[in-house]
Design goal:
Blueprint: H1 2-9, E1 15-19, H2 24-33, E2 41-45, E3 51-55, E4 63-67, H3 74-90, E5 95-100, H4 119-130, E6 134-138, E7 153-156, H5 159-169, E8 177-180, H6 186-196, E9 199-206, E10 215-219, E11 226-234, H7 238-249, E12 254-262, H8 268-274, E13 279-283, H9 289-294, E14 298-301, H10 304-316
Parallel strand pairs: 1-4, 4-5, 5-6, 6-7, 8-9, 8-11, 11-12, 12-13, 13-14
Antiparallel strand pairs: 2-3, 9-10
Helix pairs in contact: 2-10
């Protein structure tokens, strides 16, 4: 009888999903796929521009997931995420997981010159200090960023969604060439080329002066073929737009770009409109609605189902490795 009453008192933690200000549309899609409602949270700026966060419901003993992408007003959104994590932690949440589709400061992952900071490490330390127990992110700019944390990190992959889009949207995909716009992305591009069983090409940047790129050399053949540029991130789009022009001049019939994180800041939209892309395909780790109004070439792959399935599997204690090769339905 006593054992039965103890079992009745033992309550499995529920999933609670809260959204930061950076990408509420993606947060809502994740919640919808899990059949949940977003948790109540109020965020505001005080008159002195401090961020104030108030969690509007009990999280005691619950499995909390906070969705906040590293985009828009990055510093404000990062601070908001840290405060939300800490607010849930001191409210006795059972576990707090930060779901960060696009990791902020990911490109500052090493010292390029003396006295330069490693800001990605600093962000990792801040997240841990705030009280995060687990991080879920997607396509880190450098996978070694996972080593900056002393808590578990799941670095999900947009590759299965990209492969699905290629097969469904490009009729000549069996004879296409996957192209990396620089040497750093070669591993990512060859992985996709191997899975499609197609050719791979690489664009090498020639630097005669340290101050800039003097030219691009294409290593591989794209004549009379569809060329698909693959990269993890595009910010001002200088590299991929120059690469697209190089591929067209080398005889490619059409050029597509497939990117995980479409930051598209500064002159990016103007450059893409002027470049010879058939389409620039990005995931919705970063909001794209406003940018799509100014560039008709942008197409979006929804990755909310991947993040939702990662949350479901994490909550139930299952492996997320299935998501590295499959797109959940």
């Amino acid at each position: 009888m006593e054992a039965k009453s103890l079992l009745q008192l033992t309550k499995e933690p529920n999933i609670k999903i809260f959204s930061g200000s950076s990408h509420q549309d993606l947060s809502q899609k994740i919640a919808d796929r899990l059949g949940l409602e977003l948790g109540k949270v109020m965020t505001k700026k005080l008159s002195n521009q401090e961020t104030c966060v108030e969690i509007g419901e009990s999280v005691q003993g619950e499995d909390v997931y906070i969705v906040q992408s590293g985009c828009g007003e990055i510093n404000d959104n990062l601070m908001e995420l840290l405060i939300m994590i800490n607010a849930c932690k001191i409210a006795s949440a059972g576990r707090v997981t930060a779901v960060i589709p696009c990791f902020p400061y990911a490109r500052q992952d090493k010292r390029g010159e003396s006295r330069a900071p490693i800001s990605a490490r600093l962000v990792a330390d801040m997240l841990s200090t705030a009280g995060a127990d687990h991080i879920i992110t997607m396509d880190l700019h450098a996978s070694q960023i996972q080593g900056f944390f002393d808590i578990p990190v799941d670095n999900l992959c947009a590759e299965p969604a990209a492969l699905k889009w290629i097969k469904e949207s490009i009729s000549e995909w069996r004879s296409c060439t996957i192209v990396s716009p620089d040497a750093g992305g070669a591993k990512r591009a060859t992985s996709i080329a191997d899975k499609l069983n197609v050719d791979f090409a690489l664009i090498h940047k020639e630097r005669k002066k340290a101050s800039g790129v003097d030219g691009m050399v294409l290593v591989g053949d794209v004549r009379y073929r569809v060329a698909i540029l693959v990269d993890d991130m595009a910010d001002t789009c200088g590299t991929i737009c120059h690469a697209a022009d190089k591929l067209l001049s080398a005889g490619a019939t059409r050029v597509y770009a497939i990117l995980t994180h479409g930051i598209f800041s500064g002159p990016a939209i103007t450059r893409m409109n002027s470049a010879g892309f058939e389409a620039v395909v990005v995931t919705n780790t970063v909001p794209q609605e406003d940018k799509m109004k100014h560039c008709s070439k942008i197409q979006v792959i929804d990755i909310s189902m991947i993040l939702a399935e990662a949350i479901r599997r994490t909550h139930s204690g299952k492996s997320v490795s299935y998501l590295f090769s499959h797109v959940p339905s």
